[in-house]
């Protein structure tokens, strides 16, 4: 599987791909299920002419060219197994399929002993450990459902719950001594225990803080090469809404490995210099490869790099598709600046 981490279709396929690996990656099968991150292995993806994500290719030992799985609308485990069976002439079977968590109801997952470890093994998870008879748990239940529902479109955090009266081994693993216990788990490991107020607003604010604790900040940069200050805001998923809520914001969505982005970078800096004294215009960078920004880039429909959008008071009003030279970029922004905003 050739993929990019922020691609929604890739994210949806990952659990199925992992199951396929568990069924297939056995010595007697002599099959390897693998994945290649095209944001870090660019040359390899270019070599195999990968332009869409995910791209699935089957390679036989000793052959440099692979055959592409064409039925991209059907990425079910059954169909992938059938395709492999056709390619290798051996029936893999589906007896070893490991149960996945049931589909979330309004964004909330109910985990069990069979599904918990695998589900929390990667990514960010906010988990409620509870007992049905617990009064505080009963009061929290509708709020927890509201939290899950409000974050149901967020691809980077899972809101879940597990009944400790039914699945004691999991709760014992995390040393749960009272109910409800709310834990923040990253890549299978407990990172923090939530001890704040149990309102929807407080729980959502905590989730945003945990997702953005390392990357959520606005940076004012300085060009040390010529000692000329310029203002380019580096925004992330957590700070984007507030960073563009006033005035004109011209935003570059980019990836550090993108050649076109690299060529645009010094011009974008110069554009920032031109608007340094204009408080009503922000020139902005968003790195779509950062975990905290991938969901934002999906929401803003960024499907290539660089993508340049102009916003007014937080609302997207235009996409720039013109020449990427300083004069044309500057003119584009000025055409959207109100007369009293002009430099």
What does this structure look like?
There is one protein chain. This protein has 343 residues and is of the alpha/beta class. It has three domains: 2-88, Glutaredoxin, CATH 3.40.30; 109-212, Glutaredoxin (3-Layer(aba) Sandwich); 233-337, Glutaredoxin (3-Layer(aba) Sandwich), CATH 3.40.30.10. It has eleven helices and 16 strands. The chain has helices at residues 8-24, 42-47, 77-88, 116-120, 135-150, 168-173, 200-211, 240-243, 259-274, 291-299, 326-334, and strands at 2-3, 36-37, 57-58, 67-68, 108-111, 124-130, 157-163, 181-186, 189-193, 222-223, 228-229, 233-235, 248-254, 281-287, 307-312, 315-319. The strands form five sheets. A five-stranded mixed sheet has the order 5-7-6-8-9. Strand 13, helix 9 and strand 14 form a beta-alpha-beta unit. The protein starts with a strand and ends in a 9-residue tail after the last helix. The model is unreliable at 94-98 and 213-230 (pLDDT under 50). Keywords: Redox-active center, Repeat, Signal. Residues 1-85, 86-206, 209-338 form the Thioredoxin domain. Belongs to the protein disulfide isomerase family. One of its GO terms (biological process) is protein folding. This is Thioredoxin domain-containing protein 5.
CA-atom Rg in angstroms: 24 Å
CATH architecture of the largest domain: 3-Layer(aba) Sandwich
How many structural units, i.e. domains? 3
For the record, give the distance between the C-alpha atoms at the N and C termini, rounded to a whole number: 50 Å
Number of strands: 16
What's the number of helices? 11
Q: Could you name the CATH homologous superfamily of the largest domain?
A: Glutaredoxin
- State the helical fraction: 25-40%
InterPro entries: PDI, PDI_thioredoxin-like_dom, Thioredoxin-like_sf, Thioredoxin_CS, Thioredoxin_domain
Organism: Habropoda laboriosa
Keywords: Redox-active center, Repeat, Signal
Pfam families: Thioredoxin
